[in-house]
Design brief:
The chain is mainly α. Helix content is 63%, strand content 0%. It starts with a helix and ends in a 13-residue tail after the last helix. The protein binds zinc ion. Zinc ion binds next to loops.
């Protein structure tokens, strides 16, 4: 099987890099309140977009870390919910998943 663990580690590094970019964006605007209204409105919209990207990325990162933990514990191929083996094809497509297709919500 392809090295799912190293794939997840790469993904984790990528997500962490993205998160620090979002955080840098959020902190950058600290004292810049002298813009005209339109610019402020645009900025606020951007911040909202970045906010939702940030929480999405954070959720993804949590999931990746969780999957890595299960691999470390030797149960990375088992469904977290029912304990059955997860289809390897499913793991190939979704390396960060921890449930089988029957237990998945989506
Ligand atoms: Zn299951």
């Amino acid at each position: 099987m392809t090295n799912r663990k190293s794939e997840l580690e790469t993904l984790r590094a990528d997500l962490q890099a993205r998160l620090s970019r979002y955080e840098a964006h959020q902190h950058r605007e600290g004292g810049a309140l002298e813009k005209d209204f339109e610019e402020q409105a645009t900025q606020t919209q951007n911040d909202e977009v970045v906010d939702s990207l940030e929480s999405e990325t954070r959720a993804e990162l949590t999931q990746v870390e969780h999957a890595l933990e299960r691999i470390e514990n030797g149960v990375g191929d088992e469904c977290e919910s029912c304990g059955e083996a997860i289809d390897p094809r499913r793991l190939q497509v979704l390396p960060y998943t921890t449930v089988c297709i029957d237990c998945a919500d989506d």
